[in-house]
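Homework-ish question, so no full write-ups if that breaks the rules, but can someone show me the predicted structure for this set?
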Amino acid sequence: MKSKKWIAMLLAGGQGSRLGELTTGLAKPAVPFGGKYRIIDFPLSNCTHSGIDTVGVLTQYQPLVLNHYVGNGRPWDLDRNFGGVSVLPPYQGKDGGEWYAGTANAVYQNIQYIDHYDPEYVLVLSGDHIYKMDYSRMLKYHVEKKAQATIAVIEVPWSEASRFGLMNTDEEDKISEFEEKPAKPKSNLASMGVYLFDWKLLKQYLIEDELDAFSTKDFGKDIIPKILGDGKSLYAYRFEGYWKDVGTVESLWGAHMDLLDDVPGFDLNDPHWKFYAGNANHAPQYISAEANITQSLVNEGCIVHGTINHSILSYNVHVGKNTIIKDSVIMPNVKIGNNVTINNAIIASDICIEDYAEIGSTSPAAEITVIGDAENISYVATNEKSRIK
Amino acid sequence: MKSKKWIAMLLAGGQGSRLGELTTGLAKPAVPFGGKYRIIDFPLSNCTHSGIDTVGVLTQYQPLVLNHYVGNGRPWDLDRNFGGVSVLPPYQGKDGGEWYAGTANAVYQNIQYIDHYDPEYVLVLSGDHIYKMDYSRMLKYHVEKKAQATIAVIEVPWSEASRFGLMNTDEEDKISEFEEKPAKPKSNLASMGVYLFDWKLLKQYLIEDELDAFSTKDFGKDIIPKILGDGKSLYAYRFEGYWKDVGTVESLWGAHMDLLDDVPGFDLNDPHWKFYAGNANHAPQYISAEANITQSLVNEGCIVHGTINHSILSYNVHVGKNTIIKDSVIMPNVKIGNNVTINNAIIASDICIEDYAEIGSTSPAAEITVIGDAENISYVATNEKSRIK
Amino acid sequence: MDNVIGVINLVNEKQYLKELTSHRCLSAVPFGGRYRLIDFTMSNFVHADITKVAVFTKEKYRSIMDHLGSGKEWDLDRRNGGLFILPPTHPDELIKGDLQQFHDHIEFFNRSPEDTVVISPGHHVCKMDFQEIVDHHKDSCADITVVYKDFDGESVDKPIYHKYSIQNDGRVKNIELYTSPEQGDSVGLETFVIKKDLLIEIIKTCCENGEYDFLKDGVKANLHHLKVNSYHYKGYFPFIHSISSYYKSNMEFLNPELAQTFFYDTWDIYTKIKHEAPVKYSITSKVTNSLVANGCDIEGTVENSIIFRGVKIRKGAVVKNSIIMQKGEIHEGTYLENVITDKQVNITSEQVVIGDSIPRIVKKADVV
Amino acid sequence: MDNVIGVINLVNEKQYLKELTSHRCLSAVPFGGRYRLIDFTMSNFVHADITKVAVFTKEKYRSIMDHLGSGKEWDLDRRNGGLFILPPTHPDELIKGDLQQFHDHIEFFNRSPEDTVVISPGHHVCKMDFQEIVDHHKDSCADITVVYKDFDGESVDKPIYHKYSIQNDGRVKNIELYTSPEQGDSVGLETFVIKKDLLIEIIKTCCENGEYDFLKDGVKANLHHLKVNSYHYKGYFPFIHSISSYYKSNMEFLNPELAQTFFYDTWDIYTKIKHEAPVKYSITSKVTNSLVANGCDIEGTVENSIIFRGVKIRKGAVVKNSIIMQKGEIHEGTYLENVITDKQVNITSEQVVIGDSIPRIVKKADVV
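A: Not a homework solution, just the prediction itself:
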């Protein structure tokens, strides 16, 4: 058995409580995105294109959907003989199972898994960002800088900087200070949640951190500050390109809208960097004689009789006659009746919207309306107009 | 997504405490067998040959080795797009993880997994038997008999019958009574631990049994008696052929010896029913000029300088000069020095046996000697003769 | 069905579809926005749990091989069974008939433990339930079961169909080879169920006697001493035997009810996955009554058309009553009507291309 | 190595191994008890993490295709990269040279984003560290790096090797094509590292000028205006160019030290998995100084021999100084010495087959 140069550990345990009803029964990385994908498809596809063929997916909540979705890893080319993708729920010790206590603890609990591949480097990724990134360039940078740990950073507007974990760096981009959401930012280089470590170093810190009763067992809060405090060689890798955290309803909606620009901030259809998705077999979409679709992304499996403007329809969405959908995201398997109006909304998977429903508001000040899981919201069939929210 | 006619649930959670040191750090189904295989290869290969392409492996103890071994399922042709093999550790609810409380509870906890495939039938298998069985014949029988549940049985000698779960049947092989290890057997039809159920029926009983505070949550002790007590249509399917429980050191050793008969009780090399194994790539074995091998099975990767009689050498076993091995089972990656004697023994994986060691006894009355995990027994290099056990 | 081998027989294919079959075999012709004709038979096998499928190819089978690959998309990349592509063993010789090629690969049949074989061509657009047909075959204790349908296609100007006379009890009384059927005639769908041992016997006996046609020499010649039964297929089935009927049967899927029942209400049709993004509609796009597949980028007008994967329709372009196959690009200001463009066609800007009742075909990778 | 394409070039293969290459190409010849020659190069690519490998086949490549399959065993069944088998596109024409075939598949190179190509033949038994060679290539800023070795093989009676003159700084000064080398001569191993863009340029320019040989027209002709550097390979490498040298290099692996260092102390050699049981030795078996692969059933005597997978050696049979390829069966009381039996040979009972210093070959599937 050979060893691997590097492997990735993907933190897919987030409950995504800020996504509200969209994550009931679903881990955040399994949330649908872009009409065809789930969020986890983005880091997984990035791994494949970067030449990483071994990915441990650390799950916690509701792993069944992710388990079935990831399956044997084939859609992402991760069905490897040695390596490939593995879903890793919390380890069951002899005394019963324990939750992962934090991101660092999640990786700590899988030291044995990682050591099986004897990697030189370990890339730690999050499961809640939309971006296209060639991690192999980051590795090259890491090696060139003789770094022991490298954190990918992106310049954010100064006005928003205080929402992020920020790196203060010297002129060589060596990190001198890390501040988690400081009130007065000294830097606008925000951590992207993409960390590259020499595995020997990381392992040692994980073991030490585990013994530290005061630690919250978190990469950003504990591991990185400790490595930095010990004067290790820690570098910032500047990423240029589209990157978006989709951890809130607003950012999830916004990232969708970014796909609809004339020159989209983020191109899903780059032939050299395709994003892979599971369950990708659907019939072609049928656009009826009455339909009118502009500035939208519509996936296969859809049947559209209505008007779709500046919106995204995922697979197997049916849209009835005289229905108008604007500035909205419709997740998979949603059936929308006739004469419905939907504005500035996200409709979760498997929902059925009855005729004449009106969802969302056109007011620019209004929040994004979320219609959650089918099990939580039921629409009573009615001939009356029904108004939701 | 289509539904499956049938799927298998393989109970691989046994700690195998009766196998002693052989299962330290290893679930019982992961114990090596036959020089090349692990016990789990037998039910998995049987599934593949029987046309079952979806197998849930219910693990409990030490799942990492099984996880890596099962991997994407490719060696067993179980790397399917829909279905395939999945390792299923106990489910982590919001309140943290719980052990599987019994065999029935293990399947109960995975009802959602099974329902995903919407199968008509579910086959429940154990992970600690060596046999070659075409389950599709059992299914045919089950359908012909219009059974709701069918239990595979094998005739055992009356003298041993009281060690088994026994079926009393009518002339149609309909089961009238089930007795777990009765003192006075009324039948010699022993349960093989292979159950076939109509899934709807089984699901209902699993749910009811889960609510029963007095139940031990076991198929043999709880589910089968309840189904029987309710007068359901329960049939015995008579299996003819080799079947051996390898849950004890003696039976594990005995099953190995069965492979060495002139006309073996159990043929590993049937071209129409190959047993699949992972990690099957090793160099050809080298048999030196001083070697002498008779009545033995020797796997690839071995280097043999000594005398091997009526024994089994697994892959990557090295045997030094003037060493004599008789009536023994050597598990993978064992290095045996020069002038060693081994009789009636099982040597676990990764052990290193120093020169001049003497292991085991030639006395017919002696027990089988087990040399356990490398981590537990260390051999100090010595020029003196060292005698173990 | 564990005991059944699926055979897709491309040996008898004719090049009905002119330019569309000039560089690919009939079964590899694109259909319905994202499929190749062979996908329908392949998916019917998947649906029936037939996991050992042999494709007997004849000529120009490279695109079929590319398309099927290792069989992954149909879950047929298996060690046990799975997909077998069995090409002609003597490419230079004229192939004398399907039985000859079965004979060249007789070992495939000999080695298979399965006892029943379903033979089907690779270019039928239909959802045939092979499980039901095999059950019918077994229940009726037939030696061979043939599948037929009442002819309801466009009238045929060449004698290319085989007419069956069926007795009341379902047995086949006579087979009339190479006819031009009338509406309602019982027309054979070149689909058979047969015991494997009998098939092997027919292959051997016929080839020894210099007879190489399965239907003529294996079935028709044996009508009297074998029990040849029939299965009456009544599902959707377009008879495709010309560019015109090919075009019409594509266009039929613009009927949303047919699309619904065919694509959604029964089992899935699997095809090669290409990982394209969802269709992108721009602010200027105007699409009505059309099927569109993923990877398309639509800025122009599309009416009553079928648009395959990865097509670009630029601003001001108009596509009407047309079929645009994969990776076509229709540039600014161009007008297409009653046109079929093959793969990777590039229609430059400000062109006008109009077909008549028989659509005009633009050949693969042409630039117009 | 993410940025590297591996090319296995079978176009220049000669049929050195007579009967053993009469129905298969050289790279498909069995070797060492369970391998085919191509396994060594394939595994060297796997070891170097080169996950895009193109095999340019020439003739009789069916057994190579069967053996490599979808590339599963080498973990090369990938959507991104993986294994590409690129056969001659004009099977009827005489192939003019490797560059012609590279040209026929130029799209493969054009479409690949990788920037470096390693070219190797498919019949070398060696463990060459391509990672090290590519690093050497890049560190020396060479346009092309050629790999050579000091000749230490059996003397060659036909001029089949290429001799390199190497300067002190490692640059190649001259290449003498088709020579019979003396001991110690720097002999080319037909292994090259080259930038992809340069390779494409060479392919195009040469083919335009009617030149089709990579080494002669692409490397040698450019020695003066390209930086052609060299890598001195010093590892184990048998020069196999005749039945006799093939036989001897097999037998060398009966040296346990060589077997140990070659098979165990470095990286694994992958080959097709066949799921055979361990070797079964009966009470009458007597095996000494031999390599034996799985699936064998040994009741007789085996001495100084190499026994491939699935061989049966019956009671009283004696096999000495021989190579028995896969699925051979040697019946009761038969005596073999200095013999190579190809696949599936059946030597009936009480035969005596003896070769001399050049071993006798029993052809594939022969019954003796």
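Now go work out the reasoning yourself. Hint: The first strand of chain B starts at residue 6 and ends at 11.
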